[in-house]
């Protein structure tokens, strides 16, 4: 996000300073400069060729204002609202300038003039399907692309073949159990789209327990550890009764005194342990392998480079630089597999170019040709970002040892605790699911494991890729896990500009007390120093590590910041700090 908007923000600040300098004290009214907010989320409008479009922005502090609309440097209107027909196909940029005795504000909008605007229906269907109880209301509210571009737009809903509604959303409720076939059809003069769903009305919602894998690509759930090192076992619970008691066993022996969802298992001897947990009539199992080795025997010495020798996974969340083919985003269209994405990210980092992790949960995993030692220097790990005083997009940092000795990042991840770890607003064990949009240029919907939902806004004014959803994620949904930090975005009530404040310490792409290098202007050269001694287990207790072999950075803030878009951690490089010259 920052790279793209830094120059624009500097220009806006410069304009603000010049405006203040050119007004006398009598003419300038402090805190009353006009503000402009377009009546679409991203300032992009769609209209059919030859049709009339009305752009009606919301103007703040507009007393005594004059208005000027320009396109291609030519004045096209002095009215408050822009009303005009569009005779040519293409994308057109219009600038509104509002001037009052207190100052001037300008904002740009984009108008996409299309030949055909057939509707597209987009609805995020849970991967597990839709299940509800009898007489429970479930609102099915799709998003309809191009619903505003044609007066003839209409919607028809049917349930089991019977038409039931013409509203934009369907309030579904049935008293009898069974599978109900729901169909929605959207039509306008340019075409038709339809969506078919199944809604399962059941007496009891489906339940499950499961143990997650260490990453999206590493599918094994086997947990590896050394003798005497604890492993925190906490299954994901789906529709388990809140008051249910959990029963744990190891190799068939029941564990007394443990009835909660979390069990800390500490093997004392090498071997494989089958751990089973059950609750509310369902169960899950996981294998814990205590390796026949010591921490010191797994250490890899003789470093050849301070920097990673491989990017193992580049799995960003959706975001404005994902799939961006522009010179700034730099991603070629050939990046359509996880392997190609990892190679692309490695090449970018070798050149000290930013790699965006997208919205909350997006991550990159790097591996080194040697073990990074703990405590050998002031910091152990260096992560370069591009944060500066008013622009911070913090990412959490996680570390792993190659406990099983296979050279892959399939062992235990430990979070490096930062300043916000104990903040009541920080959400640990956070999971967010992203849904592939049905059409091009559409927002990406998300839901989380706390009942939250939202959108990653598609910023059409600034990006023209087909989608923010990663092309190398072939499934229609994917779920990412992280620690979600508190929102750090603040909007200036006078200028309308967004600022993202830094947290104190412990995060990548964050201009905190452990940040060095860089400038307060644009973040060039900014770096964060991390300490392995801050590593914690999943239950928050400290874990003493002599070294680490893999580092993972995860985007950790979920927020939309107006024209700046989503918060997205950016990484330019990672290094063994003790070897950085």
Can you characterise this structure?
The chain is mostly beta strands and 581 residues long. It folds into 4 domains: 84 residues, Immunoglobulin-like; 73 residues, Immunoglobulins (Immunoglobulin-like, Sandwich), CATH 2.60.40.10; 82 residues, Immunoglobulins (Immunoglobulin-like, Sandwich), CATH 2.60.40.10; 284 residues, no CATH class. It is built from 2 helices and 45 strands. A 6-stranded antiparallel β-sheet has the order 28-30-43-32-33-42. It has a 5-stranded mixed β-sheet with strand order 2-9-8-5-6, with helices on one face. Strands 11-18-17-14-15 form a 5-stranded mixed β-sheet, with no helix packed on it. The longest helix is centred in the first third of the chain and has 20 residues. The chain is globular and about 80 Å long. The two termini are 29 Å apart. The N terminus is likely disordered.
Could you list some keywords that capture this structure?
2 helices, 4 domains, mainly beta, Immunoglobulin-like, six-stranded antiparallel sheet, disordered N terminus, 581 residues, five-stranded mixed sheet
Strand order of the largest sheet: 28-30-43-32-33-42
Tally of helical runs: 2
Oligomer: single chain
Total domains, how many?
A: 4
**Poorly predicted runs of 5 or more residues:** 3-30
Main β-sheet description: 6 strands, antiparallel
Structural class: mainly beta
Helix proportion: under 10%
């Amino acid at each position: 996000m920052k790279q793209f908007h830094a120059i624009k923000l500097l220009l806006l600040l410069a304009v603000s300073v010049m405006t203040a300098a050119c007004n006398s004290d009598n003419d300038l009214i402090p805190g009353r400069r006009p503000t402009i907010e377009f009546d679409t989320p991203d300032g992009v409008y769609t209209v059919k060729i030859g049709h009339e479009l009305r752009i009606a922005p919301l103007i703040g502090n507009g007393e005594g204002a004059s208005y000027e609309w320009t396109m291609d440097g030519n004045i096209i209107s002095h009215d408050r609202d822009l009303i005009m027909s569009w005779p040519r196909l293409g994308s057109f940029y219009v600038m509104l300038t509002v001037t009052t005795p207190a100052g001037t504000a300008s904002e740009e909008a984009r108008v996409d003039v299309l030949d055909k605007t057939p509707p597209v229906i987009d609805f995020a269907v849970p991967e597990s399907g839709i299940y509800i109880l009898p007489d429970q209301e479930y609102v099915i509210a799709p998003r309809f692309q191009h619903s505003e571009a044609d007066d003839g737009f209409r919607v028809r809903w049917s349930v089991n073949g019977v038409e039931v509604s013409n509203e934009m959303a369907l309030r579904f409720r049935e008293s009898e159990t069974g599978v109900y076939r729901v169909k929605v059809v959207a039509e306008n003069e340019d075409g038709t789209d339809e969506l078919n769903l199944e809604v399962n009305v059941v007496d009891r919602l489906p339940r499950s327990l499961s143990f997650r894998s260490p990453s999206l690509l590493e599918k094994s759930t086997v947990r590896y550890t050394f003798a005497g090192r604890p492993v925190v076992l906490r299954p994901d619970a789906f529709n388990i009764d809140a008051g249910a008691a959990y029963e744990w066993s190891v190799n068939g022996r029941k564990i007394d005194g443990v009835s909660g969802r979390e069990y800390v298992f500490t093997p004392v001897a090498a071997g494989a342990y089958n751990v089973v947990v059950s609750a509310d009539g369902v169960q899950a199992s996981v294998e814990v392998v205590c390796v026949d080795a010591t921490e010191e025997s797994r250490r890899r010495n003789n470093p050849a480079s301070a920097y990673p020798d491989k990017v193992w996974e580049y799995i960003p969340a959706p975001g404005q630089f994902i799939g961006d083919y522009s010179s700034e985003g730099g991603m070629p269209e050939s990046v359509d597999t996880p392997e190609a994405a990892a190679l692309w990210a490695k090449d970018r980092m070798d050149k000290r170019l930013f790699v965006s992790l997208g919205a909350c949960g997006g991550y990159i995993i790097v591996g080194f040709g040697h073990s990074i030692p703990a405590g050998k220097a002031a910091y152990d790990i260096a992560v370069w970002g591009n944060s500066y005083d008013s622009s911070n997009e913090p990412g959490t940092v996680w570390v792993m040892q190659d406990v099983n000795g296979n050279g892959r990042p399939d062992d235990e991840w430990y979070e490096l605790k930062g300043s916000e770890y104990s903040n009541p607003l920080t959400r640990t064990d956070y999971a967010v699911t992203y849904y592939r949009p049905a059409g091009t240029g559409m927002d990406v919907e998300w839901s989380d494991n706390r009942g939250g939902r939202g959108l990653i806004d598609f910023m059409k004014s600034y990006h023209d890729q087909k989608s923010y959803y990663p092309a190398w994620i072939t499934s229609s949904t994917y779920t990412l896990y992280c620690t979600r930090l508190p929102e750090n975005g603040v909007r200036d009530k006078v200028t309308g500009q967004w600022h993202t404040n830094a947290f104190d310490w412990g995060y990548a792409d964050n201009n905190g007390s452990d940040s060095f290098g860089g400038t307060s202007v644009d973040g060039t050269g900014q770096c964060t120093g991390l300490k392995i001694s801050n590593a914690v287990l999943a239950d928050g207790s400290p874990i003493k590590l002599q070294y680490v072999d893999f580092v993972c950075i995860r985007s950790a803030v979920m927020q939309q910041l107006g024209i700046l878009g989503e918060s997205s951690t950016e990484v330019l490089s990672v290094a063994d700090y003790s070897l950085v010259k």
